[in-house]
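Hi there, hope your week has been kind to you so far. Do you reckon you could talk me through the fold, stretch by stretch? I've dropped the whole record in just underneath, so have a look:
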Amino acid sequence: MAQLTELATPAKLGFHMPAEWEPHEATWLAWPQDKTDWPGKFSPVPWVYTEIVRILSQVERVYLLVKDKTEEARVRSMLKKEGANLAAVDFFCVPTDRGWMRDVGPICLKNSDQEVVYTHWKFTGWARYDNFKKDAACTARVNAKLRRRIWQPEHKGQRVVLEGGSIEVNGAGTLITTEECLLSDKVQVRNPGFSKQDYEEAFRNYLGATNVLWLKNGIAGDDTHGHVDDLTRFVNATTIVTVVEENPDEINYAPLQENLKLLKTMKDQDGRPFSIETLPMPSPIYFGKERLPGSYANFYIANQTVIVPTFNDANDRIALNTLAKLFPTRQVIGIFCRDLVGGQGTLHCLTQQQPF
């Protein structure tokens, strides 16, 4: 295994972050640990996870983090009851705090020789929560077993804080993120003093992204303070789908219209405009007085399949039909996430792809 930080950056060695729709070796997931993340609603959450694993294990491997061997045995029993393909599930006894693998798992790169390597960005609990040390270490711990080449991205002499849910790539050089998440200097500050240029240099060196597009704000209720994977997603190298709110009295209306307007002016890495499609938003979701970040943009693209969060909402049908048209060669499957979103995220937040 290479040193955690090498002198040459991945980009200089020909590595880049592939798009999510490119073939996967596996999907990373972590079994839910913190019951306080779903106050009063934890009991159905593990069964949502079993349904995710059941679907994914039909089309690719699932790398599943569990606390210990005792939990592994219990989870195996649940997955068997649900009809998952256990032969395609690999367990890693690696404890986590929350285990949202999009943000704490390895962000994978590959080169023209199809070598897959890891980047291990610094994680600080979304600059919000204090219990994050297990999550921050999980990429290093899984790699002790897998022994991939791995980089800890650095800029200006410090490790760079980044969560996978804050970026979206088309695999051809373009990356989308938000100013709210990465440039805030008062709320949930990831890298104090970093400018757009600082981030763009880090993305170029460690993800191979040469064209960075900046949206403005995320959706209401998002405890990450603006992750892009609740907003705007690539469905292929030239097509973007973004959520819009049709009700002008709703808090998300203005920021989502602003992002849509920006996207219509943006160009890809070759200077060409994108094709822009839209998804609706579900009706506002609350648990008690807390606004939750329900969004159809939090879908996950797996081999042959796209899993989409649904919320027992009239717009579920529109979202599923829209995505079915945008992914004509994949099955588009809805998974009920009204309980899951109580933990502040859904399907894309839970998952992290590992390409072939």
Observations:
- DSSP finds nine helices and 20 strands in the chain.
- Residues 1-5 have pLDDT under 50 and may be disordered.
- Residues 118 and 150 are 5 Å apart (CA to CA).
